[in-house]
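Hi Q.,

Before the meeting this afternoon, I wanted you to have the 2-deoxy-2-amino glucitol-6-phosphate prediction in hand. No need to reply - just skim if you have a minute. The sequence and ligand are here:
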Amino acid sequence: MCGIAGYIGDKQAQSILLSCLKRVEYRGYDSCGIAVSSSGIKVCKDIVRVEALTKVAPQFNGTAGIGHTRWATCGKPSQVNAHPHLDCTGNIAVVHNGIINNFQRLKQQLISEGHNFVSETDTEIIPHLIEKYYDGSLEKAVEAALLDIEGSYAIVVVMAGESKLVVARKDSPLIIGVGDRENFIASNVPAILDYTDRVIYLEDGDIGVVTRDSIRIERENTEVDREEHKILWNVEEAQKGGYEHFMLKEIHEQPKVIRDTLVEYTQTAEPVVDLERLRDEGIESMLILACGTSYHAALVGKYIIEELVRVPVRVEIASEFSYYGQTLARTLAIVITQSGETADTLKAIKRLREVGCRVAAITNVVDSSTSRIADQTIYTKAGPEISVAATKSFTAQLMVLYWLAMGYSKADSRRLASMLLELRQLPSKVQRVLDNGDIILQCARYLSKYENVFFIGRGINYPVALEGALKLKEISYIHAEGYAAGELKHGPFALLGEKTPVIAIVAQDNTYEAMLTNIKEIKARKSPLIALADEGDEAIRELADSVITVPRVDALFSPVVNAVALQLLAYYTAKERGCPIDFPRNLAKSVTVE
Ligand code: AGP
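Predicted structure with the ligand bound:
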């Protein structure tokens, strides 16, 4: 998963390309580069961040160009493997996001035809294929080249002497930003919001020819019309809004995100997923597939749906399901994915399709690949999530799962009414968690000294323990594990002791007494213990070394307030450790490779 940018217009392309790349750098940031076209193609690329490239790049004159910020997949991060890549003549430059599965074979063939390659990447074959097929029309040559390629791609091509950019996509996102006497290309919307709020989403199989004054999109040699969308998000939303990190900004956006998602769906007359019809169609069970944080939301969803709808729910890791997953007949499959571009989840959808399963998607990115191939899509209203560590998208996903389950619940109307009331109070209760940052900061200062941490929970808060551990792992680099509290005595107890603090999620539900027992067992093994408990819980203060309190909510909603507290704990711990919070090492926002 890389970030792509392109510009063609009246202005000097270089600075525009670099500022667009800065906005998509969270997609991959191990190296970057630009190519500017005037009489020839000028390239500057290196294993640096965009900021550094901006400082070292010589000023290239030219009003058309392309740019790329990389997350290495094929070929290690290096100057020569960084994009853009050129053909033998140096007149054709290409940036690419995706993976070309048959590149080795094509490369051997091109070498046998006299082409010289300088990098280890799959991408480098594209400019060489275009060179091979070039016969006066750049777009025709690109079309021919893509016929040879197997895999996923979003590409932008520029050629010396040609005042056009040629773009194409298959299984990787690509958009065109429409300007006045200029046009922009990017992997996603935030990249171009400084310049325009008019966007065209390319579809899989589209090839576009973009000049300063025109945009023509073809599909199988037929011109197609792609709708122009006006983006309601402003640059500010895409920027940090005055917070030090995108992650902290996005954590603090959750009261609004919960409100927006609730408003969106509790006002909607038409149910998005018609369970009644599904029942008529004999749908008897549900299967939820996802990865990472979305998988943890799916696990919480299982508890919510089984509790309210009384339909059996299976939850599977998408990357596993793609290979071994079997579906029961008459199953409704739901996939959850913030980015909508996660390759493991997309592959799992294709497998579900093969077995004729109906697929509903819960995603945060409009027009993402997932929403294009799902039967129905429910959008979370989290807005752009820039920080690699997912936070607001998690609570937005939970909101959709609550809404879904309550929409088709078997619970009596009084229970539903009290739940709806409780849901409406959730934004202010989450705000109280955010306002209770001091005690969380204290615990973070304490935790930042350790290298191993356990999180435990029971019932609907077991997945929250998993999520708390994932957040701490991915941004503070502390080795954290989440466990169902009852599991500790079956092995992990061996790791307890002064060097292994435990974070215990102690909700006021039917698991409360069992959690207190587990906490006593942990304290007997000398592990420091931080409890996450409801306001007014005095008993826990006797047992825990520190207590982070959260406002009392219906047990079914406790994952929301608990998750927000654990997001803040991870954030402050990573900050104490001086970690690059928004750009954690080895990670990226949407994982578009298997
Ligand atoms: C979570 O903080 C991580 N960024 C990662 O686990 C993420 O949840 C996972 O890659 C799934 O992404 P998706 O929701 O966009 O499919």
